[in-house]
Amino acid sequence: MPSKNKRWFTLKNEGDEQPVKVWVHGDIGAYDIEAMDLIRALQSVGTQDAEFRVQSYGGSVYEGLSMYNAIRAHKGKTVAIVDGLAASIATYFLMACDEIQMPENAYLMIHNPSMGAWGGESELESALTQLKNSKQTIAEAYAERCGKPIHDVLAAMHQETWFTAQEALEFGLIDKVVDAVDLSNCLQATSEDALKAFKQPPAVLMNHLKPVPDVPEENTDEPEGEPDPIEPPPLAASAKDTNPPQQVTENMSKPTDNAALLEAAKKENSRQSAIRALCAQHKVKDTLRDEMLNDVNCSESDAAQKILAAIGAHSAAGSESSTPDNISDSHIRADNGNITKDSLQNALLARCDVAELESDNPYKLKTLLDMAEIAIGGEASKCSSRNELVARAFNSGDFAEIITESIRTVMVDEKKLRAPLFRQLANTENLPNFKETDLVTINDAPDLMNVSEDGEYKSALLTGSGEKIQLATFGREIGFTRQAIINDEIALISKVPRKFMQSGYRLADKLYFNAIFSGKMADEKGIFLAPAAKKWGNLRTNIPKNDYQALIMALHKSFATTVSSGGDPLDLRGELLLANPDHAGYLEAVLNTASKPDTFNPAYKKFDKVIETARMADVNGAIALTGKDFDSVVMGFLDGQTDPWLETSDGWTTEGAKFRITYDITAKVVDRRGVAKAEFNAS
Q1: Is the pLDDT at 351 greater than 90, yes or no?
Q2: Cellular component GO terms, alphabetically (predicted)?
Q3: Which candidate, 207, 287, 498, 528, has a CA 20 to 30 Å from the CA of 505?
């Protein structure tokens, strides 16, 4: 077996002024290493730029998906450099980088993902669905990068396409071709069998491979202690005299025909499924589970013996022993299992007024300090002070999760109770990252054209409106300390998160109105333009003072006279009126009055609703909006997260935790034809 200390990536930080260097050399997600390691590493460097140097022929699809999301979410500039070969899922996470470079003699390969499956009909159908979804997700990332139709990308994946640097540049998958590198030096750690697993690896690439020598059996034992991590070579162009760490694989016999290969795959899937089921039943931690999964000679019975040995070793050590590293604490803590945790959770939620207290809950009205003591059970007797008790509770896992879940529940409850104003007024846009994004609206969809007798349809092209949108991050931090537990400061859980949710919603409304009042369009002009020379405009001024009927009709006319980019009437209808408290009541009365004593009211029902808001205090009149079926004002959110969200900045420590309320949001007027303003004469 390869050493479990093997790393497929290394991160080197040379200071804030230099980009973080990340080498991804080897199998993605290999051995006991998960993408979470890379995610944590990126989080630790904050907004610092990052440079990824990639030499990999693929690996786990799901680990690659996680890496893609982590790199895309990174707020610093990201540059990827292919150190010789990037294949399969290794090319997918490259697409998340701001810039991709390839030496002119390097290779990049894309193909359809594959997976093994074992089980009955439902299990196989589930696996097939996962495979199809993964294929579509990967193809969409390639298509987004290169700008080609999705069917062209899928065709290239189906053929297992190997791109040279120039071909990748022409296809649109990379941004820059750089000087050639010494491929024999780059690829000497890549086994020939790995490339032969692909359908059609280029012969020129195979010729550069050097055989990987077998490691004598007596040298495969792991050395005592933690070995120093081996840093991958620098960029291949400057690494001709270096020797990167070699990937070593066991000499395992391989099936020689398809039937034998299928049977071997079935047996391996069956073995892994059985071990995973045992680990789930006995709450085995990932370290022991992955050790058994990676050992191809570990059978189901062997796994059962290892799990029993781990539990037995702990029991034999007596109650004073600590939790074994490879078995979850909840498995062996017989006096304090999930029932206790669930009851504590319910009691705390009840104190926060977001849940009904269960009738048989023994922890009714317990203080936070009481709950901390209950959560750690027998460990509490070893504590010499309340400070030590709370510190142990923070590290116990259960108590920290109870606090975190309670804060989240309070935030969800506040979301149900209170809705921000923008939800009634704006459309929303899901944005994938924090880059400036071109918006494409379909307010001016091309007219339908006559279809000739031979059934020929003419193509229409939808182009961007020229409007751009970019996310910004807003947030606050809540410190949850040992003092808060000892002082039973329940408001930190029951009230403060509500206030932050309210603050987040106020921010969203503020951004919405700022976009209307002070925003600009792509033509560098303001949102509201007065009509000129019989041309359309969405700003009407000098309405006779207090003539609400005339004001409504002016706004109505602004919508009724709008035209498409081709000059055809759009016949828009107004839906909402926004006004300050001085005008809202009068506007509503006029809209709902069919006639005056001697004449019909033409403004009757011209708008559906009046919304009163103090944010209109400086408008001596009203602002009108069309329906949401016409894109007028857009609120943008990261990945569709339209509410503030909660995260812990550095996790729980003996001192407590810091909770961050974060809101990734922006607002933009995208079409001034859907919004209009009318103001009374000041005199």
Answers
A1: yes
A2: endopeptidase Clp complex
A3: 528
| Bridge partner residues of 472 (DSSP) | 665
| Cα separation, 548 vs 404, whole angstroms | 52
Helices 300-316/258-281 angle, 10° precision? 20
* Tokens of residue 478, six digits: 């809540």
pTM: 0.50
More confident residue, 265 or 256: 265
SS3 315: helix
How many domains does the chain divide into?
A: 4
Higher per-residue pLDDT: 445 or 66: 66
Between helix 258-281 and helix 286-294 the angle, nearest 10°, is 160
Q: Which residues are catalytic?
A: 88, 111
Query: pLDDT band at residue 551, thresholds of 50, 70 and 90?
Result: very high
Instruction: For 422-461, write each residue's pLDDT tens digit.
Output: 899 998 888 888 888 777 666 666 666 666 666 666 665 5
Instruction: Give φ, ψ of 13 to 5 degrees.
Output: -110, 115
Beta bridge partners of 11: 22
User: What is the Cα–Cα distance from 177 to 229, expressed in whole angstroms?
Assistant: 31
The answer to whether residues 288 and 345 belong to one domain is no
Of 456, 669, 448, 677, give the one whose Cα is nearest residue 552.
677
Residues 130 and 178 in one domain: yes
Note whether 299 and 374 are same-domain residues. Answer: no
Residue 76: CB atoms within 10 Å: 14
> Using alpha carbons only, how large is the chain's radius of gyration in Å?
32
Work out the angle between the directed axes of helices 300-316 and 286-294 (0-180°, nearest 10).
Answer: 150
Rounded distance between C-alpha atoms, residue 651 and residue 480, angstroms:
11
Q: Are residues 525 and 603 part of one domain?
A: yes
Q: Tell me what the mean pLDDT of segment 347-356 comes to.
A: 93
Tell me the pLDDT band of 539, cut-offs 50, 70 and 90: very high
Contact by Cβ (8 Å): 615, 581: no
Residue 442 DSSP code = -
Residues in the chain: 683
> Beta partners for 176?
101
- Tokens 């390097």 found at: 106
- Boundary residue ending a domain (154, 178, 201): 201
What does DSSP assign to residue 569?
B
Contact 389, 482 (CB under 8 A): no
| Host domain of residue 178 | 11-201
- How far is the C-alpha of 607 from the C-alpha of 507, rounded, in Å? 27
β-pairing verdict for 78-87 and 176-178 = unpaired
Q: What's the sign of the alpha-carbon dihedral 213, 218, 222, 228? A: negative
The residue among 76 and 319 whose pLDDT is bigger is 76
